[in-house]
Amino acid sequence: MATARFHQALGTAQSHQHLQNSGSHHEFGNASLKLISKAFKADVGLSIRGGYSSCMRKSGVIQASTSQTSAQPVSYSPNNSSDVLRRKSSEAALILIRHGESLWNEKNLFTGCVDVPLTKKGVEEAIEAGKRISNIPVDMIYTSALIRAQMTAMLAMTQHRRKKVPIILHNENEQAREWGRIFSEDTKKQSIPVVTAWQLNERMYGELQGLNKQETADRFGKEKVHEWRRSYDIPPPNGESLEMCAERAVAYFKDHIEPQLLSGKNVMIAAHGNSLRSIIMYLDKLTSQEVINLELSTGIPMLYIFKGGKFIRRGSPAGPTEAGVYAYTRSLALYRQRLDDMLH
């Protein structure tokens, strides 16, 4: 019931940037992208109470850091039929990036779904993230609807050696689709479609948004604030719990991003600490206790390989001069060699 009330509120209260993608197509080069995401709305003004039922109880743990981690296969059960899965033998890269430092991170304020940009440090973190993934193929980009995630994706791609241009798809209505058309086939081939989705937004912190974290702890007590921030199923006043955030983020990942990976597309997701923790919980089969202890650094990309029906975690790429991460798979090693041959 809480789930229905929450998403009904999102459907009625978030109304600025409407991404209604059902049945529409966008073509970039040889890739035909069918967008079928639900309506996107950007303002948040809702009152929600009560908890969600538990989503996932799995095992496995991951630590996000600047160092590489050993490859670890993670079981995966796609929504698609096993016949489709068997036909797709190629591998695909999945890159996850938490946005760089935002202006409210710098001020130690609860941000949630308030749309604030990156700091100078955040810009530098996004550029550094781009250097780390500059040799990894990217065919599609997904970001949240918030500017700090979109800035991170765009800045990161300025460092990519292929020099393809990320282009945000606007699909609010027929006019938006028509006005955003690209008429050059060569330009399409040098473009990367960027899909924005509110489902990948940060956890909505309710009445804590805009409050100073230290002052809030002084007012309500450290234990209460810690409970709001680090429990799995207890939301802050009129906000989302991590469980509620996971429900929308993982559902979107399954419905829209997994099919792209299954078809062989290499995908980058630029999003937020809690929405990415939710996706990692799904990929690595973490328990609710393990996911609340998971920390993601700003601007540090994480690489997964989807191959043979499994997500294989590769850790964080060490940078374009470090060959190790690319040698984990034959496909990535060959891709990097092609880049070297093309650009030298």
Task: Walk me through what this model shows.
Belongs to the phosphoglycerate mutase family. BPG-dependent PGAM subfamily. GO terms for molecular function: phosphoglycerate mutase activity. The protein has 344 residues and is an alpha/beta fold. The chain has helices at residues 2-13, 82-87, 103-106, 120-132, 147-157, 174-179, 185-189, 213-220, 222-230, 242-262, 273-284, 288-292, 330-343, and strands at residues 24-28, 31-35, 72-75, 92-98, 140-143, 165-168, 191-196, 267-271, 302-307, 310-315. It has an eight-stranded mixed beta sheet with strand order 3-10-9-4-8-5-7-6, with helices on both faces. A hairpin with a 2-residue loop joins strand 9 and strand 10.
Report low-confidence residues grouped into runs of 5 or more. Answer: 1-89
Strand residue content: 15-25%
The biggest beta sheet is recorded as: 8 strands, mixed
How helical, in percent, are the residues?
A: 25-40%
Rg from C-alpha positions?
20 Å
What structural class is derived from the secondary structure elements? alpha/beta
The order of strands across the largest sheet is 3-10-9-4-8-5-7-6
Average residue pLDDT: 78
Oligomer state equals single chain
- Give the count of helical stretches: 13
Distance between the termini: 59 Å
Principal-axis shape: globular
Number of strands: 10
N-to-C SSE string, H for helix and E for strand: HEEEHEHHEHEHHEHHHEHHEEH
GO molecular function: phosphoglycerate mutase activity
InterPro entries: His_Pase_superF_clade-1, His_PPase_superfam, PG/BPGM_mutase_AS, Phosphogly_mut1
Keywords: Glycolysis, Isomerase
EC number: 5.4.2.11
